[in-house]
Specification:
Number of domains of chain A: 1
Helix content of chain B: over 70%
Helix content of chain A: 40-55%
Number of strands of chain B: 2
Strand order of the largest sheet of chain B: 1-2
Strand content of chain B: under 5%
Distance between the termini of chain A: 37 Å
CATH superfamily of chain A: Glycerol-3-phosphate (1)-acyltransferase
CATH topology of chain A: Glycerol-3-phosphate (1)-acyltransferase
Order of helices and strands of chain B: HHHHHHHEEHHHH
Oligomer: heterodimer
CATH class of chain A: Alpha Beta
Largest sheet of chain A: 7 strands, mixed
Structural class of chain A: alpha/beta
Number of strands of chain A: 7
Largest sheet of chain B: 2 strands, antiparallel
Structural class of chain B: mainly alpha
Radius of gyration of chain A: 16 Å
Distance between the termini of chain B: 44 Å
């Protein structure tokens, strides 16, 4: 990252914090530099940016939000912004066995970076948590050492709902829960449901 | 003599020094006394907590301390106004208003279709109201300041929500946003608007009205002091003599005894303060009545906000978003007192009264 990207990245983090008025709560976990996958509910374009800027600065430098390539590589501004918060762009339309997003993610994070993913795949219209796509399961299976952190993002769908361009600066809340791992012999659907419940539980706890 | 660079600088310095010594020493003096008192209470509370840590409820002390810190901030800011001019205070209140509205709308759930209405409210009506507040000393602009939100704002909100095309709970949604805008922005903007009033006072010696030439920070100081005194007095009256609650389902501590006791004490405080220092343009009895009115409005504000909180099932606006102090909890009383105090002052002592 060059100087201008670093500066933009700091400005982005501050803007996101001001705009979302986000309170960050760690419930049953602490900020740590070990490799993690933060998985959260997805209701707004701001989700990735706000969650990323809610992390402490040292963690921001080693955490990469996974974002849709079709949105974030459209236009020079978006591409630049994505490069500043170190986004890992995945093409949602070109997924095949040879071009597996999981392999791309694992290759990109090496043994240094953490990830931010939205396992619902696309933004929820109603705000309800949809079923999880299987990516999280394969990540957990191929890299059992990664800590999987459930995150619940509250109120961001009111700050910038789907289909709106201009944000309204309400207050939001980021709750980060205790890590989960794939159990021995746990099936895909079983695990994905458990992960989904972990996010839902954070929603109820607040 | 041709003015050289040196003499110009000399003049500037002389002017600045002169300005520094011609500041409103009474206001600054009173401010310093209040700030010192608050610091003393703050220290005493902490001492109490350490000394009797097992008998004193630490949660109560924490609530009390947070309140004192908020008050200190306001007084220190008022002090700065005397030096830096009214714009600083105006910007401060704009920030507070904006944050309070965020809390209010976050708490009062709106629907997807209200998004663009809210955008207008936050980014057009909020700044516009405060810009108009800065010009409210002028007669023509004053009217714009006074009607922007009650007339333009409330009609706009209703129409914009209708244009968004969702009929469900239309009246409820409209009322929510209108109320938030009215309390958090419109009402509170009257506090800094006090700084721009053009006033007269009744000169008892000559028996006629004369222009009042003191700084208006005194009025704002009087308002804030009375609101906070009322808060404090209610707390003690309720604890000591509170028998008949005003409305138990709304607020479990506010009693009729507290309301009357605080209002009477505030009236007495206003009377004594005016009699001793002549800080406001009111007569001595005028100041007493203003003290009572402010106290009654402060209680009304607290009760109203309690009702909203109870309805939404939250105890504190601060608990919505942990870590934030809950701005709306601090300003509920002043929000109700400021517009009434402003309009009464302007009605009786606005410069136009004397003609």
């Amino acid at each position: 990252m060059n100087q201008s990207q670093k500066l933009t990245s700091a400005i982005l983090a501050i803007t996101a914090k001001l705009l979302s008025g986000a309170t960050v709560r760690w419930r049953g976990s602490e900020p740590d530099e070990c490799q993690r996958v933060y998985f959260a509910n997805h209701t707004s374009h701001l989700d990735a940016l706000v969650l990323w800027s809610g992390l402490p600065r040292q963690l921001r430098a080693i955490t990469r939000p996974v974002a849709a390539a079709d949105y974030w590589s459209a236009g020079r501004v978006r591409r630049y912004v994505a490069s500043c918060f170190n986004a890992l762009l995945i093409d949602r339309h070109d997924i095949s066995v040879r071009n597996s997003p999981i392999d791309i993610m694992l290759r990109e994070i090496g043994n240094k970076f953490s990830l931010i993913v939205f396992p619902e795949g696309s933004r929820s219209v109603t705000g309800e948590l949809q079923t999880f796509k299987s990516g999280l399961y394969y990540l957990a299976k191929k890299r059992p050492d990664l800590e999987l952190m459930p995150v619940y993002l509250d109120n961001l769908n009111r700050i910038l709902p789907r289909g709106e361009v201009l944000p309204v600066p309400l207050l939001s809340c980021i709750t980060i829960g205790a890590p989960i791992w794939l159990h021995q012999g746990e099936g895909k659907d079983e695990f994905l449901e458990r992960a989904r419940q972990a996010v839902l539980q954070l929603k109820e706890e607040q | 003599m041709v003015p050289t660079a040196m003499t110009i600088i000399d003049n500037d310095v002389a002017e600045a020094v002169q300005k520094l010594f011609s500041i409103d020493r009474l206001t600054i003096g009173l401010l310093l006394i209040v700030i010192a008192l608050l610091f003393a209470v703050f220290g005493w509370m902490n001492w109490l907590q350490r000394r009797y840590s097992d008998t004193v409820d630490p949660a109560m002390i924490r609530v009390f301390n947070r309140r004192i810190v908020a008050w200190l901030t306001i007084y220190i800011l008022l002090g700065l106004t005397v030096f830096l001019g009214p714009l600083t205070t105006l910007c401060f209140f704009l920030g507070v208003s904006f944050w309070a509205l965020r809390e209010f709308v976050t708490m009062a759930p709106t629907r997807r279709a209200d998004h663009r209405t809210l955008f207008w409210v936050f980014f057009v009506f909020v700044p516009l109201q405060y810009i108009l507040a800065a010009y409210s000393g002028d007669r023509r602009w004053f009217i714009a300041f006074a009607v922007l939100i009650p007339v333009y704002g409330s009609l706009f909100i209703a129409a914009r929500i209708a244009f968004a095309g969702e009929a469900q709970r239309f009246l409820e949604r409209t009322a929510k946003i209108q109320f938030g805008l009215l309390i958090c922005i419109y009402a509170l903007s009257h506090a800094p608007a006090l700084l721009y009033l053009d006033l007269i006072y009744y000169d008892a010696a000559s028996g006629e009205y004369r222009p009042w030439e003191q700084t208006n920070s005194r009025l704002l100081f009087f308002l804030v002091l009375m609101v906070q005194l009322s808060d404090l007095l209610q707390f003690f009256w309720d604890r000591l003599y509170g028998r008949n609650l005003i409305a138990a389902p709304i607020n479990a501590t506010k009693s009729w005894e507290g309301l009357v006791g605080a209002a009477l004490c505030c009236g007495a405080a206003g009377l004594i303060l005016q009699w001793l220092t002549g800080i406001t343009p009111f007569t001595t009895y005028g100041a007493a009545i203003m003290g009572m009115v402010i106290s009654l409005m402060a209680i009304s504000g607290t009760m109203t906000m309690s009702a909203i909180k109870r309805d939404r099932g939250v105890s504190d606006y601060g608990t919505l978003v942990q870590g934030h102090a809950g701005v709306l909890d601090r300003i509920d009383a002043i929000c109700f007192a400021a517009p009434i105090f402003y309009h009464l002052t302007r009605f009786f002592l606005g410069a136009a009264v004397a003609g």
